[in-house]
Amino acid sequence: MLELNIENDYITLGGNYDSKVIDIISAKCSYFVPNAEWSPKYQNKSWDGRISVFSKRNKTFPAGLRDIVLAELDSKKLLYKVNDIRKKPKKQALAEVDLGEHSFRDYQQKGIDIFKEKTRGILAMCTGAGKTKTSCGLISELSVYPVIFIVPSVSLLIQTVAEFRQSLKPLDESFEIGEIGGGKCNIAMNGVNVATYHTLLTAFDQKYSDKQKKIVTADKEKDSLQSLREQLKYLKIDYENSPKAKLRGIQTKIKTTERKIKEKEKFYQNKTDLRELVEKCQFL
Question: Residue range 117-133: average pLDDT?
Answer without folding.
Answer: 89
